[in-house]
Amino acid sequence: MKKKIVRIKDIAERAQTSKGTVDRVLHNRGRVADDVRERILAIIKELNYEPNLIAQSLKSQRAFNLAALIPDPNLDSYWEAPHNGLEKAEKELRQYGVRITKFIFNSHSDTSFIAKAKEVGREHPDGLLIAPIFYKEALPFFKEWAEMGIPYVLFNTQIEHVNPLCYIGQDSYRSGSLAAKILRFGLHSPGTVLVAHVNEDISNSAHLITKEEGFRDYFKSEQLEDTFKVISKEINFPDDEGPDKQLDDLRKQYPDLSAIYVTNSKAFEVAAYLEKNALKDIKLIGYDLIGRNQQYLNKGIIDFLINQNPLGQGYWGIHQLANHLIFKKEIPAIKFLPLDIITKENLDYYLDPQ
């Protein structure tokens, strides 16, 4: 049933007073006789009046300058989707005065992150969307932005003991647990399972640590620790090389290696190694629908991908800032996005038409 629109004019007519008097009561300004005020408030409650926040925001004509502190997609294609998401949100919200300035940093350089974070402070935006992939370096800035009164939304990485307006992303612990459960279905004999952190500084990546905890706890909760040995390894290498030597060494050390869980979007690096060495019996699961991951998923070398919806993270992050700043809505502290399991059979349904 369509909700009836209640106007200030309707309330004024019922209360037998002027629209100006109703407006003063609604905004608690100016002098209004007590009996008139009580009559207006009773009618407001009876008619279930709600202010038209969209119309108010259009009338105000105020500009809202938002900032996005995000990694360079030219250095890591994973970040293309959040860029696209926030740009989509900006187009939708432009009529309300929203403008976004991007502060783009090198995802492999903490000094680059620090420099761009300082620029954000000097710019003093009305709100900030941030991917805090450098946990230690980000902490002092959270305090600084809070003192400056800048609301900020976290995406991709959830951080405890800070007070963002909202976190947008996946539940990292459940994500790791889900990955373990999926892999378990494909393991028919005892063996070693590798948690691979590919080209990551794991000590400074809180969300990856949490994913690994969820993964390990699944095997513990199912009492599978004696059947499957779970190991973890940081596999770091220059862009012009690959993980071959480190994976060769791991296979020599663990000849019963039967599955690999890549905790980020770099599953394609491991998939290239498996393809090159014709290793068809090692199960592989990773994250995100970047192009090279899609190729190996279609080939059957990557068995599953978990979609973290990076486009949605950028999109909803900007919308949550707008809901807070423009529409004055209450914002939930956490907005978890669904954990989508992608196979080559359903991949096409998750690809946006070009």
Automatic annotation (TrEMBL):
Domain of life of the native organism: Bacteria
Record key words, sorted: DNA-binding, Transcription, Transcription regulation
InterPro entries, per database record: HTH_LacI (IPR000843), Lambda_DNA-bd_dom_sf (IPR010982), Peripla_BP_I (IPR028082), SBP_2_dom (IPR025997)
Domain HTH lacI-type: 6-60
SMART domains, per the entry: HTH_LACI
This protein's record includes keyword Cytoplasm: no
Entry coiled-coil feature ranges: none
Pfam families (UniProt xref): LacI, Peripla_BP_4
Gene3D superfamilies cross-referenced by the UniProt entry: 3.40.50.2300, lambda repressor-like DNA-binding domains (1.10.260.40)
Protein name: LacI family transcriptional regulator
Organism of origin: Dyadobacter fermentans
